[in-house]
Design a protein that fits this description.
alpha/beta; 7-stranded mixed β-sheet; 3-stranded antiparallel β-sheet
Length: 263
């Protein structure tokens, strides 16, 4: 948070405080132990859980929200983490670190480790929490950001109220940074455009996979040395730098704030 005043002649022009918000999502650890996680890393059968999201986010701030629903995501911007309303026009940047797919950003889900007959990791997958097929109804409990969520925010009374409270918390030049795999590709590109008009801010995302480079020791199993995760916080995009955190990665989808948001 920045709070500064700049002297201008005999008067002082005050720069309003600007808040940067960090948000991670709920994808629990699937491993039975740290050693089991290292075995998955060795076998190239590792996907980041919310433990890795927290590790990468902590490079930038130890004060972040963990969410699992649309309402919690919106609420992390509308209210402070202690629950009080944020000042209007105070949020300048929102960072969301999660799993994504073409056309959606997950807010909760499951990391699945595939195992051989001996229980050793041999593969991995990520599944998103989805509404029951018989009741694809969006509420604040909805667990992903997709076209259905955008439509609800614009068309339903409850959605419009939450949307407008979200908008009110933003600075005029606010931006939403979506760190997730494939969030800006194909259908996801249209979703980024729709989000910019719905939430009334610039939206930044990635066409390809945002990747992690976890490290562990020992490199190969040793009889008298326990397996240990060294780091889960190093990330990279395409051929860019491999560094702790994620703000060094440059989005290749950049939708500007609309001239006029969705009414």
């Amino acid at each position: 948070m920045v709070d500064a005043g700049v002297a201008v002649g005999p008067k002082t022009a005050t720069i309003r405080p600007t808040t940067e918000i960090f948000i991670v999502t709920s994808f629990p650890d699937p491993w039975t132990s740290e050693a089991d996680e290292v075995r998955a890393m060795r076998a190239n059968s590792w996907e980041p859980s919310d433990t890795a999201f927290a590790a990468a986010t902590s490079v930038h701030s130890h004060n972040f929200a963990k969410v699992s629903t649309l309402g919690e995501f919106l609420g992390a911007v509308i209210n402070t983490f202690s629950g009080t309303p944020r000042p209007k026009g105070s949020v300048g940047r929102i960072n969301l670190l999660t799993h994504g797919d073409t056309g959606l950003f997950g807010l909760s889900g499951t990391v699945v480790v595939k195992r051989d007959a001996s229980g050793n990791p041999v593969g991995e997958d990520v599944f998103f929490t989805r509404p029951p097929s018989s009741a694809n109804v969006v509420t604040l409990s909805y667990s992903q950001i997709d076209t259905a969520a955008v439509n609800w925010l614009n068309d339903a009374a409850g959605g419009q109220s939450a949307r407008d409270d979200f908008r009110a918390a933003l600075t005029p030049d606010a931006g939403l940074f979506l760190y997730a795999c494939h969030g800006g590709a194909a259908q996801g590109l249209q979703l980024c455009i729709d989000l910019s008009f719905t939430l009334n801010l610039a939206v930044h995302a990635f066409r390809d996979a945002v990747q992690y480079e976890p490290t562990f020791e020992p490199t190969l199993p040793l009889p008298n040395k326990p397996d240990r995760v060294v780091s889960r916080n190093v990330m990279f995009y395409q051929t860019g730098a491999h560094l702790p955190g994620y703000k060094h990665m440059k989005p290749d989808v950049n939708e500007p704030k609309p001239a006029a948001p969705t009414p």
